[in-house]
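Researcher: Go.
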Amino acid sequence: TARTIATAGTVTWTGTGSISSGSGAGLRVEAGGLFDVQADAFWFYNLGGAVPRVDVASGGTLRRSVGTGTATLGAVVNDSGTVQVQTGTLVLDEGGTSTGAFTVASPGILNFQRGTHVTRAGASVTGTGNVTFTIGTDTLFGSYDVTGTTTLASGTVNFSAASPDTARTTTLTLSGGTLQGSGVVLVRTSGSWTTGALGGSGVLQIASGGTLSISGAGAKTFTARTIANAGTVTWTGTGSISSGSAAVLQNQSGGTVDIQADASWFHNLGGGVPTFNNLQGGTVKRSAGTGVANVQAVTNNEGTFDLTSGTLQLANGGTGGGTFTVTSPATLEFSGSATHTLGTTSRVSGTGNVFFTSAAINVQGTAPNAYDVSGTTQILSATVNFNTTDTTRITTLQLRGGAMQGTAPFLIQGSGSWTGGILTGPTNSVLRIPAGVTLTIGGTATKTFRRRTILNAGTVVWTSTGTVASDSSATLDNLAGASFELSGTGFWSSTGVGPPRVEVRSGATMKRTTSTGVTQVNAVVNNAGTLDVQTGTLKFGTSFNNTSGAVLQGSGTLDVATATVTNGGVVHPGTSPG
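Model: Structure:
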């Protein structure tokens, strides 16, 4: 206690006997001096008073040269010379401020533990061994280059070397605590993040060929810092990531981010929204996981998204001209309250599913087949503007709410279901139903149909008991060979500037089938094909024009009491309904 040992020679500590200390006791290693810690033992701070000190002067050396166990220094260690760990573990347990060098040779371990450790500019931590940070607060302004493993188990480490200096480690293990600071940390080979926090204004760089594994069920926090990936980042497990303060994950050209977790990247810590940038040449995968991965970061894609499993929710908007390829059974879901804009060079395609569940989505690709999805396209409560130059190709459409609109022509290649929401677009824009394809209009919810023409060469079946609200800019045009079947008891209302139109071309059929109630159509109905009222009542509330060569038939009831009727065709079997 209290006394200072000053050595310009050699002090060697061996054996297993510990040292109890306090009252500001000190060991000063002067230039040319050596303190050689060979013991597997403790230098305790347990006798009260001021914390003991070890001061290593310029030219002095503190060395751990023998011993395979752990030697713990319960003293403030201020290094202006050299601290060497050649074997075993050396624990610095009470902090210190240093301008000198720390070197760690494999298989040695240097552990910065309790207290506050600061390495000033000009200081260095290097070697082939391992460095561990636990419990305390450590700030490294000096250089850091470790070819072994850097482990952060608890406490806080600030890597804050001034640019252009970069902290380098071959392997990084983040299993607790907080890695932060204003500097760059480069992971050469592999990183593991199972719990703990990434923060500060600096960068965590994953080198080309390197990996970062984000795994486990443990809580993770990601704020302010940028993860810049030129290697592979793989996110597995069920542990979610809490985020805020404008954190950034930037996937660089040649980099891969594989989201296999059924978990969430939340924006729940305040500050700026986190951002996920997939740069040109970068790839984002969803290669495993059968549940939902939810990304509440602004997602900007200039590269490639390749989804083959589970569901990936992009829940906070974004922009970009990259590609999205969705392979069955995977689902890509655009959700959240922010706007997603897929730019002019973007493309969405694949055998999987694309869901638009909320907010506004602008699909603006100009290349051929810029939107070509052979799975299911579902619109739930979003406003989707399909402004592709080429036809928007949808194999299975589920329009359940929101709005399907935009300048692009739509082509339904397999089947369509419209149970709610708005179908619209610029005047004379088209939704095509080819031969062999069925569009079913069903459900009880009100549907709005404006400024678009449904060109039907297949089958449109209206089973709904709800209302379809339209105006004069909406047209259902049934081409030769097409069938328009009305089997529900719905109401097609006329709103706005005038009534919608129903065209039944020569060779087309409009049928009233199945139910015994009333289906009312307040539209201009022009029949040049066959109108077959098989059962129930079909009521026209605006006008009905049965042109030359057209046929009106069936054993049901056609109610035209409030409509204007023109008949130039055939009424079978009886008299003109006019």
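Model: The chain is about 0% helix and 55% strand.
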